[in-house]
Amino acid sequence: MARHEIKSPIPGTYYRKPAPEEPPFVDIGDAVAEGDVVALVEVMKSFHPIKADAEGIISGFPLEDGEPVAAGMTIVELD
Amino acid sequence: MEQGLSIRKLLIANRGEIACRVIRAAKELGLETVQVVSEADTDSLAARMADHVKVIGPPHPAKSYLNADAILSAARECGADAIHPGYGFLSENAGFADAVESAGLTFIGPLADTIRLMGDKAAARAQARDAGVPTVPGSDGVINDVDEALTLAEAIGFPVMIKASAGGGGRGIRVAEDSDDVRRLAPQASSEAEAAFGDGGIYVEKLIEKARHVEVQVLGDGLDVVHFFDRECSLQRRRQKVWEEAPSAAVGNAARARLCASAVDLAKSVDYRGAGTVEYLYDEATGEFYFIEMNTRIQVEHPVTEMICGTDLVIGMIRVCAGQKLALTQDEIARTGHAIEVRLNAEDPVNNFMPFPGIVTGLRVPEGDGIRFDHMLYDGYEVPPFYDSLLGKLIVWAPDRAQAITRLASALGRLDIDGLPTTAPLHSALAGNAEVQANAVHTDWMETWLERNTDKLAKQEEAAA
User: What residues of chain A have any CB closer than 8 angstroms to a CB in chain B?
Assistant: First the structure.
């Protein structure tokens, strides 16, 4: 059980990377601070950065890059 | 089925309001319809309207509505003999048009070569010039050094725009007021384009100040071409049209005749087949117009033309692409009155137009003379987040522009889309605006107005709620 879950406030398509050819924003084992961008969600052709709302060490990504995400779904797990 | 059509089963390779619009036209022609849908659209209004529904892939457009192979397989499996691409997605993809025709199906649009030509900015401009259509004075191709930019800018006259050739959507455009600006901005534009697109080529073009966006609707059968007069779409945000009218109230009849004739000349020069739009910038101060581009598809704002000309353009384009000759000569096409269309997007106008998908919890549509609502909604519909935010279009017609604006304001007051914010309050504010009413607008007017009036808009919305 993760200590904290970062959820997407909006529905859309979930992306782990700023652009297809670039590395992911964050990876498992990375330390994140509150306010760090951890993902993008594309909603109706516009891209919205998702920021960490707590600090911690990343322990999991429940979704694959490019998968649909519903509002309120967990996108990053922190320990 | 209508006599003389070479097709009987039409596949709609699109979604949303335009898919519904095409299905309506197909049914009037007695055609069977196949709606292809992504997994996110199985419950869409278009899916409910069509005779057959075929799922072609996951929600993301690249895996469904842009997946030419999946669409062609669906057409084969369903026995469709024609494909209507709508607008956006694959509608202006020459490779797709080629693939459709190679598969022995009819593409409801121009020949692939026409799409290819008009999709190439430099080639389209050259074609326009050869057909005698005025183009914006500027460099005919990519220029690579500052001296060349400077010589050209001085020949054209200031102000000029410096644009990245690989850019698009207004990115990387700079305005130079004099030679010093060119010396400073041309290298900036070039290096920014190099960094962003890996191509440092730039264009220099005359800046038409306070330009209006006007366009001419054409329809061709591959031999002959007719026009259905002009539209004006100067109210734009981020280069997206927001409010469209027919005809343009800024263009006088003498200029209109030249404008429409030039669009027909260009379309005839490429033996145009199908519905198309020739877009221009119009300089109200001088009465001059300049070709921007030709869109080789049906456009979002086609209903305003249908309202003033009493014609069905989608039926028209299907007929000519299915082997019929144009049903009307130019002399038989007349216009009357004034029409306005506003785009209802699932966006919150007071929150920086944040897209807002959600569930439609209530829908009340205005009815009456001169009112039309083209849309994709029903009570309980869940708007998916994967596609653009256009929900529908409210279109009104009246004998003149002032009455059309009054009718629009009244119809907006009777339109309720509950459950999600839409751009309806923006349109109500625009309809009540003195400058809009006086038609004192241009393509940059709305962004400037929004900067000053977003707070007021928010208060109005609060009061309304």
Answer: 10-13, 42-46, 66, 68
pLDDT digits (tens, 9 = 90+) for A3-42: 899 999 889 999 999 988 899 999 999 999 999 999 999 9
- Which amino acid, one-letter code, is at B370? G
3-state secondary structure of B282: strand
In CATH, B9-108 is 3.40.50.20: yes
**Catalytic residue check, B297:** yes
Contacts of A47 in chain B (CB under 8 A): none
Look up the pTM and report it.
0.91
The CATH number of the structural domain formed by B146-206 is 3.30.1490.20
Q: Which residue, among B25, B33, B28, has the nearest Cα to B9 in the 3D structure?
A: B33
B385/A10 touch (CB, cutoff 8 Å), yes or no: yes
B120 strand-pairing partners: none
* For testing contact with chain B, the best of A43, A46, A48, A73 (most B CBs within 10 A): A43
State the nearest Cα–Cα gap between A43 and chain B, in angstroms.
5
pLDDT class of B350 with cuts at 50, 70, 90: confident
The DSSP element (H or E) to which B215 belongs, if any, is strand B212-221
The CATH number that applies at residue A55 is 2.40.50.100
From the candidates B15, B297, B372, B407, which is the catalytic residue?
B297
Instruction: For residue B388, give the nearest of A10, A11, A44 by CB distance.
Output: A44
Q: Is B96 exposed, middle or buried (0-12, 13-18, 19+ CB in 10 A)?
A: buried
Q: Could you tell me which CATH class the domain B212-464 is placed in?
A: alpha beta
CA distance B153 to A30: 52
How far, in Å, CA of B342 to CA of B350, rounded? 17
Q: What count of residues does chain A have?
A: 79
What is the distance between the alpha carbons of residues A45 and A42, in angstroms, rounded to a whole number? 6
- CA B52/CA B70 separation, integer angstroms: 16
Domain of A45? 4-78
Domain count, chain A: 1
Q: Do B60 and A46 touch (CB under 8 A)?
A: no
Residue A40, CA distances (Å) to A5, A13, A32, B40, B438 in order: 16, 8, 16, 20, 43
Domain ranges for chain B: 9-108, 146-206, 212-464
Say which range, A26-35, A48-57, B98-107, B349-358, has the weakest mean pLDDT.
B349-358
